[in-house]
Amino acid sequence: MNQSRGEKIFGILNMAALGLVALLCLYPFLYTLTISLSTASEASREGLHLFPREISFASYRMVLSNPNILTGYGNTILRTVLGTTLSLLGVCIAAYPLSRREMPRRSMITFMIVFTMLFNGGLVPTYLLIRNLGLINNIFSLIFPSMLAAFNIIIVKNFFQSLPESLVESARIDGAGDWRILFTIFIPLSKPALATVALWTSVFHWNSWFDAMLYITDDRKQVLQTFLQRIVIESNTQLMEVGIHDTSVVDFTSETVKAATIIITILPIICVYPFLQKYFVKGIMLGGVKE
Length: 291
Hints:
Elements: H1 5-36, H2 40-43, H3 58-64, H4 67-99, H5 106-118, H6 123-132, H7 150-162, H8 165-173, H9 178-189, H10 191-207, H11 210-215, H12 224-232, H13 238-241, H14 254-287
Helix pairs in contact: 1-14, 3-14, 4-7, 4-10, 4-12, 5-7, 7-14, 10-14, 12-14
């Protein structure tokens, strides 16, 4: 197809603008990666850091030899896997009856769920509830409060409503009940919406640190992001010093240690995202259709 001169100019300017935006988004990650792989002297150098001129893995060895970081990594992985699984299960069970037109008081219940997106009990009542339930220093204190996110329920509910009603009618003729219809028909056909919700939920659990700071007081049960928060925000490099077993490893600074910790922290999400990205737009578009 032949393009006019104006269309060609617009295309070039559009690609240039998008390329600039992409570069601005990529540079912070590239900078952090470069600092984490640099020697102490190179990391202290002023100017742009687009690639490491002198490569050193001292910061990574220091981070990975720290038992607190490794323990936090395990706790974060457990929280993310368990939280995402339970959240998907709970959201599907909550969204299915709300998607059925024959459910009584469906609109009122949906309104009550949406209402929680605007108003909540607040920090102090939530903490008192978690404490009275005996969940302090328990991993479920990090999972239960966010397990049934109202926005996720609405997205999955709308996706369920977009499925053909004939599927439900055929299943009922064959004697299937609601549980079987949900787990054998609705959930397998809802991969785009569920993958999108799974991505949101897993990123939320992986990045969360504030709730762990409130409810978890034992460092053996603490998540990785809390240690990262202490290192990056409070610059508490003493947390890292307990992991030094090789006394010859001295080619690092607090900045390279912070950068290495950040890279190690975000790698799992970066690895998982490409596998779920293809479902992202489809899940948002179909799940966001208004009833």
